[in-house]
Specification:
- The structure is a single chain.
- The protein has 9 helices and 16 strands.
- The chain is α+β, with helices and mostly antiparallel strands and about 350 residues long.
- The strands form 3 sheets. The chain has a 6-stranded antiparallel sheet with strand order 6-7-16-15-12-13. It has a 5-stranded parallel sheet with strand order 2-1-3-4-5, with helices on both faces.
- A hairpin with a 4-residue loop joins β8 and β9.
- The longest helix is centred in the middle third of the chain and has 23 residues.
Length: about 350
């Protein structure tokens, strides 16, 4: 991998100016190249294997998101970091490390670019701000819950130090019920972490208290309220996949509502079943409706709720948990794993 920063843009002078200022600030520790078309970009990428690509989605010949996907899936490259900007919406197969929507917020772009370059050249951990955020992030990860009949654990593997994913679960002993949620903010930096930890999580947990006390009649209604909140946060809301769940352990009944999390996984009699979920992603449509689903899981030995980063690796044929965590190339990886020790006609097992 070279120390090249490649900007691919046909009309954005602002991005080129910010990158030129960055090169001066970091004493020319990287080479800056600017090209105007997707074809030129692919030629440069093949020849130089740059460390960072900053790609305008609105190119004259090839969509920037297609360039990003080609780069991320190219086996000969060393997984360069990709910034993709001038997006109007996010497609499910879009692959990049940071996304910036139209119109470009140059202050946000500059902050994230300089954070990236700090990681590369200045060891930003010594400054303390990122280190403190990592410690805070680690403190929020829930611990194992284990009883004679079930256990709940998690996988939480940031793409690089900080994650935009969030998850939590808890056991209500009085009602013998499990509650929890999982979501996936765009990006893998301190801004994504701040959005997740300090804006989205407090709203979810406040709303869950309302759900548990009966203020919301269903997880559908609960999810719709979260969608309203996402739109209220920003006039150009970040698309946020999310899943809410409730398990009545007395009836062994699972109730869940997905907003953009494509699947949940249920293991029955040693075979993993993929349950498709078809609802709008949060932040996509202001008046979107969300459907909760209910099913008996008395014969299940395992339930897995996973982020896109986790599920994408499973779709690639990976089945070993350690391999999933260690090979997380394109995204944060997170999952909630429920194991039942007393499944009828089933047995506990690993993914």
């Amino acid at each position: 991998m070279s120390n090249m920063v490649l900007v691919v843009s046909s009309h954005s002078q602002e991005v080129a100016k910010i990158c030129t200022e960055a090169m001066e600030r970091y004493d020319n520790k990287f080479i800056l190249e600017i090209v105007n078309t997707g074809i030129e970009a692919l030629n440069k990428i093949a020849a130089n294997d740059p460390m960072l690509l900053i790609i305008d989605n609105d190119l004259p010949d090839i969509p920037g998101m297609s360039i990003a996907s080609i780069v991320k899936d190219a086996s000969k490259l060393h997984n360069p970091t990709v910034f993709l900007y001038n997006l109007t919406k996010l497609y499910p197969n879009t692959k990049a490390d940071n996304y910036f929507f139209k119109p470009l917020e140059t202050d946000v772009f500059s902050t994230i670019l300089f954070e990236y370059l700090d990681f590369k050249f200045n060891d930003v951990l010594s400054r303390g701000s990122i280190a403190n955020a990592v410690v805070d992030q680690d403190s929020r990860i829930p611990r194992l819950i284990a009883t004679d009949t079930f256990s709940v654990n998690n996988i939480y593997s940031p793409y690089h130090l900080l994650s935009g994913d969030g998850l939590h679960y808890w056991y209500d002993t009085e009602s013998n019920s499990l509650y929890g949620y999982l979501f996936d903010c765009v990006g893998h930096d301190i801004n994504s972490y701040i959005l997740a930890a300090f804006k989205i999580v407090p709203m979810i947990e406040k709303s869950f208290k309302s759900y548990e006390s009966g203020v919301y009649d269903s997880l559908s209604e609960f999810m719709a309220s979260l969608n309203e909140y996402i739109f209220a946060l920003n006039s150009s809301p970040e698309p946020t996949p999310m899943l809410l769940f409730f398990v009545d352990l007395n009836a062994r009944r699972l109730t869940f509502c997905s907003a953009g999390i494509p699947n949940i996984l249920i293991k029955r009699k040693g075979t993993m079943e993929v349950i498709d979920c078809n609802n709008y992603i949060l932040g996509f449509k202001p008046d979107a409706e969300f459907n909760e689903e209910c099913m008996l899981v008395n014969d299940a030995s395992q339930i897995i709720f996973g982020s896109d980063g986790f599920l994408d690796l499973l779709r690639d044929g990976t089945t070993d948990i350690c391999e999933i965590v260690n090979s997380a190339k394109h995204d944060d990886v997170s999952a909630i794993i429920i194991n039942f020790n007393d499944a009828h006609n089933g047995h506990p097992g690993k993914v």
